[in-house]
Amino acid sequence: MNSSMIGKIEKAHRYAREPERVRFGTFEATFRGSHDDYVVQLRGDEWSCNCHTFSSHVVGTCSHIMALQQMLAPMLSEEARFATEQVALAS
Ligand SMILES: [Zn+2]
Predict the structure, then answer these.
(1) Torsion of Cα atoms, 5 then 7 then 11 then 12, to 10°
(2) Which of 70, 40, 71, 91 is nearest to 82 (CA)?
(3) pLDDT at position 86, please?
(4) What whole-number distance in Å separates Cα of residue 90 and Cα of residue 75?
(5) What's the predicted TM-score (pTM) here?
(6) Rounded CA gap, 6 and 21, in Å?
(7) Mean pLDDT of 1-18
(8) Which residues keep their CB under 5 angstroms from ion ligand 1?
């Protein structure tokens, strides 16, 4: 392996410990819930989930979205990190 590739790998290891360098804009993930698998999406600052809680539109969030907000916190914009959670806490 040439030295420039070794340098890139070392840099990648360093970056991997600095999640705040990464900002998710859009993603889709399958979340294995207690009863079923759910599809959670982020588009800009808008979350969605195909579980019953989210679909009922009562709180605007669900346990799957809230869990991902905690897991990905350093990699989310301020809005995506807190938006729906504040709605849920306020209601
Ligand atoms: Zn959900």
Answers:
(1) 20
(2) 70
(3) 47
(4) 24
(5) 0.81
(6) 21
(7) 93
(8) 38, 49, 51, 54, 62, 64
CA distance 79 to 9: 32
> Distance, CA 59 to ligand 1 centroid (Å)?
11
How many A from CA of 28 to the centre of ligand 1?
13
Q: What is the dihedral of CA 58, 63, 64, 68, to 10 degrees?
A: 110
pLDDT at 91: 45
6 CA distance to ligand 1 centroid (A)?
41
E strands, 2-61, in order: 26-32, 37-43, 46-49
Distance (Å) from CA 39 to ligand 1 centroid: 8
Distance 17 CA to ligand 1 centre (A): 28
Give 23 Cα–ligand 1 centroid separation in angstroms: 22
pLDDT in tens, 54-85: 999 788 899 999 999 999 999 999 999 886 65
Residue 60 has a pLDDT of: 86
